[in-house]
Amino acid sequence: MQAAGYADALVRAEQFVRGNPELVAGAVAVVALGVIVALALLRYRRPMGVRFKEALADREQVAVLMHPDPDPDAMAAAIGIARLAEQVGCEPTVQFSGQIRHQENRAFRNVLDLDIEGIDHVSELAAESVVLVDHNQPRGFEGADGVLPFAVVDHHPGEGTGDEFTDVRTDYGACASIVAEYFDDVGGKPVPPDVHESEVDARFTLPSRECTGLLYGILADTRHLTTGAAAADFNAAASLAPGVDEDSLDRIANPQVSGETLDVKARAIAGRQVEGSFAVSDVGTLSNADAIPQAADELITLEGITAVVVVGERDGTVHLSGRSRDDRVHMGRALENAVEGIQDTSAGGHARMGGGQVPADEEKSREDLIERIFDSLEGDV
Known about the structure:
The protein has helices spanning 2-19, 21-45, 48-57, 72-86, 103-111, 175-185, 208-221, 231-240, 246-253, 259-270, 291-299, 331-339, 366-378; strands spanning 61-66, 91-96, 116-118, 130-133, 151-154, 165-168, 189-190, 205-206, 273-275, 278-285, 307-314, 317-324, 346-349, 353-359.
């Protein structure tokens, strides 16, 4: 009886299909669309590290491009991405424009023995496929505006995107945290400093050099996890800990300081102009522009000061470096507003940290620029 019932149901179903072909076709289309959407959602929800790994695996070579004059966070993120690329069969070349002058940045490069290349022209990029790291719009070399990156990994605000992959997390304190998270996403394991990576049973590994670099990159961009650090930065730092070489970390963190840097810090403190809890200091002309952000780091520690901008000139360019621990002041936007309307300028950054450059021959006067900075800090620009 049951078999007869099944047969009768099949006959009725066949008759319905024959009699309502349009309805059946529509139902099939809806089901197919549902399957496609479900698969797309599953693909979209995969961890970003997995998606980035697959994007890299589709390339034979990539140029991992840092921003001009790269800092530890940029270098750390770049070598982490290069390591991930190597493990999926993609040949990476880490590149940058500008110079590495800051003693902390030089120590980072030298202690970790980084193989990174400087470029001056777009033709020197090592591959057509470019990954932008710690910035989202190419800059700093001739032809930069013609570069269309295939991927962007960054934590700075901006409009730049990658043609295939974009991961910009402005709530993270460091780009290195994003890259450390990628290795967690793909099941990567840190390699302790006294262990060879061949002894680690994992498809993806993060050698001690990269672990050390990524941890220092996080510490450097968050002032040792005290400024602008999100929970993700703490988690990333913890995940890297097993692979960190403490001796290398100490050597990077405590490099020798030049006499000029100490002099610039002293000039910034002694020559500061203060309005309320805001301070602006003009340190004049100097040969090492990297001393300017170091002076800003020093000035923000003064009692009663909640936001600072240090101004200095090198080779015809006025450099601005700002720090804020005041919720009323978004330093990146404050510097953008301060230089708005001045030709050939660039400025921006985070709530707690920002920088900018102004051609010396474009500023009306240094006094006018300082007044504009104070107005911007006050929210009057």
